[in-house]
Amino acid sequence: MAWIRDSTLSWFQLLCVKVIKAGKVPRHVAFIMDGNRRYARKNNVLKAEGHNKGFDKLAETLQWCLDLGIPEVTVYAFSIENFKRTEDEVDALMELARQKFRRLLNEKEKLMEHGVRIRIIGNLSLLPHDVQKLIAEAMLMTQENNKAFLNVAFAYTAHDEMTNAVRSLSIGVSEGLLLPSDISESLIDRSLYTSDSPDPDLVIRTSGEVRFSDFLLWQLSFSYVYFTEVLWPEFTIWHLLAAVFHYQRNYRHIEEIQSLHKPVEHTNERISSYLTWLYGSREDTLLKLGGKLL
Ligand code: FPP
Ligand code: MG
Q: What pTM did the predictor assign?
């Protein structure tokens, strides 16, 4: 299945989407797509097939988010913890990633037409080299797009992300770019893999598990959380509409809390040059992986 599909909603679903769109639509929704293996067990198919169905559901959900006018989506596709699964399952997930990122590169026209920017967040160095290259190519190909954003957390955990940010900041200090007093909440925020994104307004976890599993722990502090029992491959537009509806009923309160906790952005020349170095070195890594820089 393609990443970007055409809308297939019935007239009644379209009507419900229209009603929900009359209210406050979240700018950024994060998904913990859980329950693929239980789905496989329930349907007597291989685990790899459960993950395949999980990908199809992701493509469908992205289309629903476009229909709803949600401009940014982040999905938890592969946690660093998932490397501890059996070799067969990890290999199957890597093969799925290979196939799907290759397919993504072939969907350039559609991605450009919808203005979708793809970002993969995570510790790419943990992935097989060919997967790293495909990811870099996808990110570079769409980096000028700015209408819709899809962030795929792959080889990601929040602990790893924060460790990486602390490492970058300490290099900044030891290289004399920063003073320890320059380190603030907002600078930590801008050192994370998600530095280009606003925090999610809504996070949805499927499969009845009620925890975050090391996903966006810094960024979800003030998000509305929606847990649902449905297994990810069985997620429907009705579950998404229900989650957005619950968000809408609570958003005034959430917005008030978010505005009280906005970190004060302080900046100076040192901070600007540290950020130029940090983002420049990320860009260089991508260019090298994508074969665009020798
Ligand atoms: C959680 O279900 C799901 C995963 C670990 C993988 C999610 C991956 C996809 C939906 C495909 C996305 C692929 C790309 C290339 C973006 P689980 O395996 O933990 O199932 P369980 O909770 O029933 O054991
Ligand atoms: Mg699970």
A: 0.96
Q: Do the domain assignments include residue 289?
A: no
Question: Which atom of ligand 1 has the smallest separation from the CA of 39?
Answer: 23
Report yes or no on 218 lying in a domain. Answer: yes
Q: CATH number for the domain including 43?
A: 3.40.1180.10
Q: Residue 222 domain-assigned?
A: yes
Does the beta carbon of 48 lie inside 6 Å of ligand 1?
no
Residue 155 belongs to domain spanning: 23-159+194-250
> How large is the average pLDDT for residues 6-33?
95
- Ligand 1 centroid–CA 52 distance in Å is 9
| pLDDT at residue 292 greater than cutoff 80 | no
Report d(CA 61, CA 1) in Å as an integer.
12
